[in-house]
Every structure is written in structure tokens, then in C-alpha cells.
Specification:
heterodimer; A: mainly alpha; MetI-like fold; 72% helix; 0% strand; globular; B: mainly alpha; 2 strands
């Protein structure tokens, strides 16, 4: 395949008289330039996290003669508790959130996509409206509610909403996906004697795996990155998540221990980047389809 | 018989819906009603809410300069960062559209910051990059330019958070890119035959066809920008400083509600935001008829 064919002329290719090879190269140069500017700070942070603390701040470059793991050793056990605890907490909350979202959102989506019931249109309107609702309007009363229920300093305020399908976006994503599956499948299952539960669990869900995967990944990233939720509900250091651990680290150490801070930041980002590399196709298609359909 | 069947199906449907229904009633609609009530009260969690009528709103607009500056900061942030985000996303989507090698690699790398942008780790990094000895100043020093801390001075702190938001343009770009790939090539060829240059073709062919996605991204990015929190909190250490220059609406709401336990005031603030977002959304949908083009639908 040549760089540019006539039918698929690039935006910047004026006329065939301009050399398409040159234009292609310019395009790549521009894109790579933007990427370098964008990604350099992150790459620099990762590199800095392996440098001795004296070198962390006074170098623009990525390389050092004295790579060390000291920042990781110090950072891991710094702060009020060590990061093993924060990571375990984050993993627990994230895992419970993912399962909750998968269960509640898929049940709801099946009903909206496949079943007929009274007030369906109204309820679907409510679902769409909650997607646009700013979270602040429920933030204060939910806090009061969870406070009354004595759920402060437990994971319940962070996890229970996920089990009750509060994140309408994922329901919507799955409704749109299930609608693309042929109805004949349901009819065939019905003739074979499947009820709705079996149609849902044996036919639709296995086929909806891409949508479930997208939901799981987005929930993972949102829960892992979540800062406000843990900040509001988790006051005891032994319950803190990685986000809270990093934030308090910044308070305790100030600017003096940037090496350790960068080391822990790198570890906090690693799962996100890891999952992304493993499943980028799923994530990118998930984003692309939300806009198109 | 038909009736009993749909009746049974309705029952099954509500069983499937039950977690969501419980959530919508207990965690969304109920709390909304309660916060609508709280907006007219003074409530500190310790003693019962006390009805004070419109006092919260009166205070917001006439007796609380910090509230007004949080509104100003937020509107400035939304007004600058959303258009910037849309323009940058569109330009990069155009650069990636059609016949480019390594498309999936580029797409992935541009998208990655969108996933990290909301994390504390990146906010921590941002604080360093724009600090007095940070990466930005080190680069500027190479050109002989000296500047103090960007996050530490009131004139520039907000712009560092605008950059943080702009950095995560990938999600918006991917939606534009998906749309660009559906623009029929014949239309472009026809316009080219008619003598339209690339700029003309963009404005008369591509852009009209992209309006549904511009509408979608404008709506979502604006709502998203109004709710920005983590970046401002971490960069300013929760203060909204320096000199309230990064006092985002959400940050001030957090301070009022959860640091000072003024739950009534925070609820009033939340509802003021709902009204503003509602008006914005309504306005957008009303004007959509004039500028959003849905191909074959009309």
C-alpha cells in the first residue's frame, strides 16, 4: 500500500501536483511532535522515579548513570501506612465496583432492550436524564444518607451505588449494544423453552461480552482514579486508597521527596496503562460508538 | 391471553429492573428532592435542618464574594477549555483521518492521557511540571526565559489546569475520528471536481456532516468541565488558591459542604449548578435545529 491513494486523499493534500510522500512525512512529523510534547512529562516522571533523590529534580533528561530502586523502597513504606495497604484497598473497592456495575447495568439494559413493560419510555427518559445530571446535586444528600446509615468509614458508600446501577452511562452503552443483536436469537431460545432469565444469561450476555468488557474496563479506570469518593467517605488511613495515599504523601513530604512521590505515582498509573495496552481496541471502540449511536 | 403474557413480561421486566429502580429512587430521585429541601435550610448535620427560605441564595449572590469568584473561575475555565478541547481534537482527528500508517498506534497513544488525566498521580505530576523548578521552567530556561511557579501565581494557576484538561483530549478526538470516517468520499471528490480547495471542502462538506458529533462532544465536555475537581484540588492542595484563582465551583462546594458542614448552602450551590446546566443543555438543544445537520432525517 502506497502512503496515500487518490481516492483517500488526505486533508492537507491539495492537488496531485504536491508530492504525497512529502505531505505524508510532514503529517507524521507533526503527529509525532505533538505526541512527544504530550507524553514526555509522564515518561520523564517514570525515569525520574528511578534516579537517586539528588538527581530527581535537576535534570530535564531521561537518563542517569546511577539508577536505583530507593525511591520505590522509601515511597512504599512512607506516609502513615505503607502502600501495600492502599493498593489492597483500591483493588478491593475497584473489584467490587466492577462486579456491581456489570450485574446491575446488564440486568437493566436487558429489560430496556428486550422486554415490554408499562412506563418503559418514561423510565428510559429518566435513565437518559440521569446521564446528564451533575453529581453534585446528589452528593450532599447522599453523604447525609450514608452518614445516617452509619456507613462512614466503610466501603459501602463507594460500592453499593454501583450495585444499584447508578451509572446510567453503562446501562445506555449496553442497551445500544444489545439492540444490535438479532431478535431471532431470543425467539429461537423461547421456542427451545428458555425463559427470560435463561435467554439473558445464556444467550444475550455471552454475546454482549464486548460491551461487558468495555464496562468493566471503564469502571476499573474510574474507580481506580476516584478521588472525591474516598476523600469524603474514608477518613481512617488503614482504609485509604492509592489516590488518598498519594495525596496525603504530598502533604507530609512536601517538595522534598519527589522521587518517592513519583515512584508511587508511577505504580498508581501502571495498572491503568497495563489494562489499556491489553484492551485498547475495546476501550477505543467503546468511546467511538458512544458518540455515533 | 395476550394481556396476561405482557403482564407477566412486565413483571419479569421489573424484576430485571429492580436494582436500578432501587438506585434511582434511593440514590438519585430521593436525594434530589431532599437536597431541594435542604437548599432552603441551614443544616450542619448535628442539629435538625432550620428553614431559612431564600437566604442561602441571597447570600450566594450578594454576600459571598468567594462564591462569585468560584463562578467566575469556573465559567472562565469552561469557556476557554471546552472550545480549545474541541478545536484541538478536531485538528488531530483530521490529521489522523484517511490513509495514514500506524493509525491504531497513534490513536492509542493520543487516547492514553484521557485515562490518566483524572488521577491524583497526574495531578501530582502537574504540580511539579508547573512548579518553580519544574519541567516547564527548566525548558524555558534553555531559552533564557525565567518565570516563577506557574501553579503558585494567581495569574497562571488556572491555565495549568486548563492544560491538564486539554492534555486529555483523546476521548473527544476518537469520537470525531469515528465520525470523519463515515463522511462519504464521493462528496469530497465531487466538491474537489467543482474546484473546492481543502479548506473550502472542510467547511462546506466535512464540518456540516460532523455537527451531530460536535453537538455531542460540546454537551458532554461542557458538563464534564463544570464538574472538574481532582486537578484543582490536588494542584491547590484543596485551597483553590493562590488567591482563589483555582477555586472551582466543585471545590468551593466541597469546602462549604464537607469542610465547614454547611449542608444547606452546599445544596443551594448544587441546585444553582443544576439550573445553569439545565439552561445550557436546553439552549443547546433549542439551537440544535439551526446548526446540527442530521443527514437523511429531514
Amino acid at each position: 500500500m502506497t502512503t496515500v491513494s487518490v481516492g483517500a486523499r488526505p486533508f492537507f493534500g491539495r492537488r496531485a501536483t504536491r508530492n504525497p510522500l512529502v505531505i505524508g512525512l510532514l503529517r507524521h512529523a507533526l503527529l509525532i511532535g505533538v505526541l512527544i510534547v504530550m507524553l514526555y512529562p509522564v515518561v520523564w516522571m517514570v525515569a525520574a522515579s528511578f534516579r537517586p533523590s539528588a538527581e530527581v529534580m535537576n535534570s530535564l533528561g531521561l537518563f542517569s548513570k546511577n539508577y536505583t530502586l530507593d525511591n520505590y523502597k522509601h515511597g512504599w513504606s512512607a506516609g502513615q501506612l505503607n502502600f501495600s495497604r492502599y493498593f489492597l484497598n483500591s483493588i478491593a473497592i475497584t473489584a467490587l465496583s466492577i462486579v456491581g456495575n456489570l450485574v446491575s447495568c446488564s440486568l437493566t439494559a436487558y429489560a430496556f432492550a428486550r422486554l415490554e413493560f408499562p412506563f418503559k419510555r418514561i423510565l428510559f427518559g429518566v435513565l437518559l436524564a440521569t446521564m446528564l445530571l451533575p453529581y453534585h446535586v446528589t452528593l450532599v444528600p447522599q453523604y447525609i444518607l450514608f452518614n445516617e446509615l452509619a456507613w462512614m468509614n466503610t466501603y459501602l458508600p463507594l460500592v453499593v451505588p454501583k450495585w444499584l446501577g447508578v451509572e446510567a452511562f453503562f446501562v445506555f452503552l449496553m442497551v445500544q449494544f444489545i439492540r444490535t443483536l438479532p431478535r431471532e436469537l431470543d425467539d429461537a431460545a423461547r421456542i427451545d423453552g428458555c425463559g427470560h432469565w435463561r435467554t439473558f444469561s445464556r444467550i444475550i450476555m455471552p454475546l454482549a461480552l464486548p460491551a461487558l468488557g468495555t464496562t468493566a474496563l471503564f469502571t476499573f479506570i474510574a474507580s481506580w482514579n476516584d478521588f472525591l469518593g474516598p476523600l469524603l467517605y474514608l477518613n481512617r488511613p488503614e482504609q485509604w486508597t492509592v489516590s488518598l495515599g498519594l495525596n496525603s504523601f504530598l502533604d507530609v513530604t512536601g517538595e522534598s521527596a519527589y522521587g518517592s512521590l513519583f515512584a508511587m505515582s508511577t505504580l498508581a498509573l501502571a495498572p491503568i496503562v497495563g489494562f489499556f495496552l491489553g484492551a485498547q481496541k475495546l476501550l477505543i471502540e467503546g468511546v467511538a460508538t458512544t458518540g455515533l449511536k | 391471553m395476550k394481556n396476561t403474557r405482557t403482564g407477566r413480561e412486565g413483571l419479569t421486566a421489573y424484576l430485571f429492573l429492580s436494582p436500578w429502580l432501587l438506585g434511582i429512587v434511593l440514590l438519585t430521585i430521593g436525594p434530589m428532592l431532599y437536597s431541594a429541601y435542604l437548599a432552603f435550610t441551614s443544616y450542619d448535620l448535628l442539629s435538625a435542618p432550620r428553614w431559612i427560605g431564600l437566604d442561602n441564595f441571597r447570600r450566594m449572590f450578594t454576600a459571598d464574594p468567594r462564591y462569585l469568584s468560584s463562578v467566575k473561575v469556573t465559567l472562565l475555565y469552561v469557556g476557554v477549555s471546552v472550545p480549545l478541547l474541541l478545536v484541538v481534537s478536531m485538528i488531530l482527528a483530521l490529521l489522523l483521518n484517511k490513509g495514514i500508517k500506524f493509525l491504531s498506534g497513534y490513536r492509542a497513544l493520543f487516547y492514553l492521557p484521557s485515562l490518566m488525566g483524572a488521577s491524583v498521580a497526574i495531578a501530582v505530576l502537574w504540580r511539579q511540571i508547573f512548579g518553580s523548578t519544574g519541567l516547564v521552567n527548566q525548558v524555558l530556561a534553555l531559552f533564557g526565559i525565567t518565570h516563577g511557579s506557574w501553579v503558585g501565581s494567581p495569574g497562571t494557576a488556572l491555565w495549568t489546569i486548563v492544560t491538564l484538561n486539554l492534555w486529555a483530549f483523546g476521548a473527544t478526538m476518537i469520537i470525531f475520528l469515528a465520525g470523519l470516517r463515515q463522511v462519504p468520499a464521493e462528496l469530497h471528490e465531487a466538491a474537489a471536481v467543482d474546484g473546492a480547495g481543502p479548506i473550502r471542502r472542510f467547511f462546506s462538506v466535512t464540518l456540516p456532516l460532523m455537527t451531530p458529533l460536535i453537538f455531542f462532544n460540546l454537551l458532554l465536555d461542557t458538563i464534564h468541565a463544570f464538574q472538574a475537581f481532582t486537578g484543582a484540588f490536588v494542584v491547590s492542595r484543596g485551597s483553590g488558591g493562590p488567591a482563589d484563582s483555582t477555586l472551582f465551583y466543585t471545590l468551593y462546594l466541597y469546602q462549604q459542604g464537607f469542610a465547614e458542614l454547611k449542608m444547606g448552602y452546599a445544596s443551594a450551590m448544587a441546585w444553582a449548578l443544576v439550573v445553569v446546566l439545565g439552561l445550557f443543555t436546553g439552549f443547546l438543544f433549542l439551537t440544535a435545529k439551526r446548526w446540527v445537520y442530521y443527514g437523511d432525517e429531514r
